[in-house]
Specification:
Layout: H1 3-12, H2 16-20, H3 25-30, E1 32-33, E2 43-46, H4 48-54, H5 58-65, E3 75-81, E4 84-89, H6 91-105, E5 126-130, H7 144-160, E6 164-169, H8 176-188, H9 190-196, H10 208-224, H11 226-246, H12 260-291, E7 295-297, H13 303-311, H14 313-319, E8 321-323, H15 326-331, H16 335-345, E9 350-352, E10 355-358, E11 368-371, H17 379-394, E12 398-404, H18 408-420, E13 429-434, E14 437-440, E15 446-448, H19 459-477, H20 479-483, H21 485-505, E16 513-514, H22 517-520, H23 528-549, H24 565-587, H25 591-609, H26 621-644
Parallel strand pairs: 5-6, 5-12, 6-8, 7-8, 12-13, 14-16
Antiparallel strand pairs: 1-2, 2-4, 3-4, 9-10, 10-11, 14-15
Helix pairs in contact: 6-24, 7-24, 8-9, 8-10, 8-11, 9-12, 10-11, 11-12, 13-14, 16-17, 19-21, 23-25, 23-26, 24-25, 24-26, 25-26
The structure holds one RNA strand.
Length: 653
RNA sequence: GUGCCCGUAGCUCAGCCGGAUAGAGCAGCUGCCUUCUAAGCAGCCGGUCGGAGGUUCGAGUCCUCCCGGGCACGCCA
């Protein structure tokens, strides 16, 4: 288990009883657990499974194991309680150890220097993580938050374990939907098409919202009218052919496809599509920066970042994720067509009902469709091409897709198809699925968000509401801070966004989330603001100490002065942190970190609020310093944990 | 119909590789601000862990079946 258990186990392994039973430190450590009640001991070793192996009764084994136990090190006392070997640790020495360990890894004033809980278990390995992946020409709605923040947090957690993590935003920027968008734009805004003949930004100052409305309006008409629907398909075909012609592929045809008329029509569509994408990215950028993420468009990296990418790729991938639109695999490298040719040649893909498919789950079950019966590539094909590109370009060791659970089948098919094509590394690909965000409908039922029905809540609105709510509370509770407008806004932003983020990450990702304004904006209890508040209060306490006794020298804080049960429990919680992060990393589950922080913050708050005697800064300087030393360690672990969740720390609130 | 996810306190959720008496937050009730931020703390109330079998020394946890809810199941992505 954790380093505390490891150290205790190492000590126990030298005892005669354990030696005789053939139990080494590893086995011991793996079987150490916390007893249900503190007075039973700090750690307990359960003998059941070893007793069974040895053919003796558990209580007998427990009694034998403690024969010749040498206490006096970390273990102060040991006793056999029925089938358990209960261990009472020497608290002073453990506290001293844990504090030293935290301090060793958390030197420095800046949160990014606090590395307690980090490990190098992933050193030299690369993880590609597919996150966020919105469709262009649609605004970011609340449900996009899940993939984005779960993915972002996993990225940070994996990085803390030594991995290189490439965050990839697989933009939905290709498919027949864009034919509909183009057709809609031409239909309702005739001058745009005219402008596109000469202007590279034909959409003027149209917003994402307007693009989305145009699409929705056209889509509605297309559902009622076959001809209109076909017009949408045609526009996409024109776009796709233009792209193919641009790539100068022989099979695109020499004569008719490249004739002036088609070329011009294609160029118009291309320009509309490209401008729609630029407009979308500009808006996404605003949203992502609120959340603390930065994306660069791949592979068109601007000069400044190109240099960083070349000189310090590690720093580039740490500080930025990348956009790689689906269109990239079609337009730039022809990866889709190559993949399809490969699948056909190897006979993995077969023709069925006019489409080219791979029967990943056997005949009769839903196949993976590579090419649709109208000749257009499907998103499956583009996802496969994307996987191959990522594998080749980043030499990844692992890849995961942070995508809603409703796409489970798609990813099952994807991984199986890759294996059938001989790509065994697909075994290291996974789907980090998460539950749906549900919204209450007018009829009271809960359902997926729908832009069409107007039940979708825009991410920006949610963040704005949360920030405004925090701003109000600051005005009410901290007038001094409220008076400083720029500081107030900075804090309101960090705490408001943090509230939304923490609310999303605190529970297991597979749970469906019933979106509830009251719950998101409730800043009591297990909430982001509560976490931020504990952090801020620890800074206040530190400041108080400074005012009273001057700059604290933590090394002089005497662990022997920390004898309270609450303090011991906090130390145990601190000691467990590295394990918690490792587990969250292995399971792609940020909530494991979030939950642990809730516990740590709660223990801390109970500790120093309990009585007047537990105030940190009191009359006894030595006691105050010892306690402050613990506060300092807690603050750094809490700060590190919140950072791993993608939250920003504040110093006042 | 088939597959996957979920079912633990009134509500939202934790619960480790099966381990000793199942835990938080919210809501409700009762206290606590001359002191380091009350966005807080303490206490009370609240449980047949959906149901039935099974495996095991031991099951909220593993297996089977059933019930209830959600999602997916060929040309949207």
């Amino acid at each position: 288990m954790g380093f505390l258990e490891d150290r205790v186990a190492a000590e126990m392994a030298t005892w005669g009883g354990f030696k005789a039973a053939g139990l080494d430190a590893k086995k011991i450590s793996e079987n150490l657990a916390r007893p249900p009640k503190p007075d039973m001991g700090d750690l307990a070793f359960a003998t059941f499974r070893f007793a069974k192996e040895a053919g003796v009764k558990p209580p007998e084994l427990a009694a034998k194991l403690i024969e010749g136990a040498e206490t006096g090190g970390m273990v102060a006392e040991v006793d056999a309680a029925g089938p358990y070997v209960n261990l009472h640790l020497d608290h002073e020495s453990v506290i001293s150890d844990v504090l030293a360990e935290v301090e060793k890894h958390s030197a420095g004033a800046l949160p990014q220097d606090w590395r307690f809980g980090d490990s190098d278990s992933g050193h030299g390995k690369t993880l590609c993580i597919d996150l966020s992946s919105p469709n262009i020409a649609k605004p970011l709605a609340v449900h996009h938050l899940r993939s984005t923040m779960i993915g972002y947090s996993i990225k940070k957690i994996r990085e803390s374990q030594g991995w290189r993590v490439v965050g990839i935003n697989h933009l939905g920027d290709w498919g027949t939907g864009f034919g509909k968008l183009i057709a809609g734009i031409k239909k309702y805004f005739p001058d745009v098409a005219e402008r596109a003949k000469s202007d590279e930004k034909p959409l003027g100052d149209m917003t994402v919202q307007e693009l989305n409305e145009t699409y929705a309006r056209f889509n509605k008409e297309a559902k009622e009218n076959e001809d209109i629907a076909l017009a949408g398909k045609d526009e996409f075909a024109v776009l796709e052919r233009y792209i193919e012609a641009l790539m100068d592929r022989p099979e695109a045809g020499e004569g008719d496809l490249l004739d002036a008329m088609a070329r011009e029509g294609g160029q118009v569509n291309f320009r509309i599509w490209q401008h729609a994408r630029d407009i979308s990215l500009a808006e996404f950028e605003r949203m992502y920066s609120h959340l603390g993420l930065s994306f660069r468009l791949w592979p068109v990296i601007e000069e400044a970042h190109k240099k960083l990418l070349k000189d310090e790729p590690a720093a580039f991938y740490r500080d930025h994720c990348i956009y790689v639109g689906e269109s990239y695999y079609v337009t730039a490298e022809d990866l889709c067509r190559r993949l399809i040719n490969d699948a056909v040649e190897s006979r993995v893909a077969v023709e069925d009902e006019g489409a080219l498919v791979i029967f990943t789950h056997g005949k009769g079950k839903a196949p993976l469709i590579l090419v649709k019966n109208d000749g257009a590539t499907s998103y499956h094909a583009r996802d496969m091409a994307a996987a191959l590109y990522r594998k080749r370009h980043w030499e990844l060791d692992e890849m995961t897709y942070v995508v809603g659970g409703e796409q489970k089948l798609h990813f099952d098919q994807l991984f199986k198809a890759l294996k059938e094509l001989g790509h065994d590394w697909a075994d290291h690909c996974s789907h980090t699925d998460f539950g749906l965000m549900l919204f209450q409908q007018p009829d009271g039922k809960w359902a997926k968000s729908s832009t069409r029905k107007g039940t979708a809540i825009m991410l920006e609105d949610l963040l704005d509401e949360a920030i405004a709510a925090v701003r109000d509370i600051i005005a009410e509770k901290n007038p001094e801070l409220a008076a400083d407008a720029s500081m107030r806004e900075h804090v309101a932003h960090a705490v408001g966004v943090g509230a939304v983020v923490f609310n999303d990450l605190k529970n297991g990702r597979r749970n469906n989330v019933k979106f509830d304004w009251d719950a998101v904006l409730d800043f009591q209890g297990e909430s982001g603001p509560y976490m931020q508040m504990q952090y801020v209060r620890m800074l206040s306490v530190t400041e108080k100490f400074r005012e009273t006794y001057g700059e604290p020298v933590f090394e002089n804080g005497d662990p022997d002065r920390l004898g309270l049960d609450e303090e011991w429990r906090i130390v145990q919680s601190l000691a467990a942190f590295p394990d918690v992060v490792a587990k969250a990393s292995a399971e792609f589950e940020p909530s494991i970190v979030a939950r642990h922080l809730v516990e740590l913050a709660g223990l801390t708050s109970s500790w120093w609020t309990a009585t007047k005697d537990t105030r940190i800064v009191g009359d006894d300087e030595g006691l105050s310093l010892a306690r402050l030393r613990l506060v300092n360690a807690i603050r750094k672990v809490l700060g590190r944990g919140l950072t791993l969740l993608g939250m920003e720390l504040v110093e006042r609130m």
